[in-house]
Amino acid sequence: MIQVVELAGRAELASVFVVRLRESQTSLVECVGAVDPALPRTEKMVIVVSTQLGCPVGCPMCDAGTAYDGNLTVREIIAQIELVLEQWAAPEAGSCRKLKVQFARMGEPAFNPAVLDAIEWLGKESGLPGCMPCVATTAPAGAEAWLERLVAMRDRWFGDGRFQIQLSVQSTSEAQRDRMIPVRKLTMPQLAAFARKTTRAADRKVTLNFAMADGVELSPARLAEVFDPEVCLVKLTPLNPTAQSRLNGLSTVFDAGHRDRVDDLVADIRSRGFDCVVSTGLAEEVELSTSCGQLARIRRASVRGNGAVDDKWDRGEAR
To answer: How many helices and strands, by DSSP H and E, does the chain display?
Structure first.
């Protein structure tokens, strides 16, 4: 079953669906349809889906980590893709030159083998010629075999550059990475080795993601020391004002209205040979509370207020 319980945003920019996947009132996840305002829908659209019921990682800036109740099945992941295709992306989806399907909303994809099955479905059965899967992961320790299978899936179905791997790095200090990503994970040298080993000339570069939190180190010199700009690019995003970021005293270095605050940093990163992308999003998205897990968390709290939900979710006892 899949039931839309809330729809936020604007269809011409981005729509966030909060959906219920199981009988439980708390089996809520988010999936998204979004466009690039600079491009028509026939050129690029983005679908973002959840891979778990909540997230066990518990990053201090992400509301998805305030709850966790296990992996989604491959059918539940595909159901989100089909929902966004039908209710938001049609009719342009079948002819869109770049239809990016991101496994990046709620959950850590590398903890769920069903994500690989969903990617195979995209390559084998979806019938979407412009489909480009994108997997964003913290690269947990012990996920090496999963990552190898992910690369094999890329090479089998999307070996012509229509695949993107994003690694959440968040800081060039391993100690601060432990704060920002509170789970055992591959070190930066291990991430760099993975990128060098698996990225070929025809592949997209591996994206190194940094949500720019004030006081958290991002050293261009350390980046250049560890990572190879021939196979890695750097992506900077604001740290959004979620319930968790406020609770943990985190604020952003820049936002949509103050991109110039990272101009010098971007220039330094680029001077070391890296491509550097700055993705600010829209101020409207922040106002609508559309960061990962925000709407699902608010909906759970609302249902709990009606006496229908056990508060173990926000206490983390469901983990």
So the answer is: 11, 12
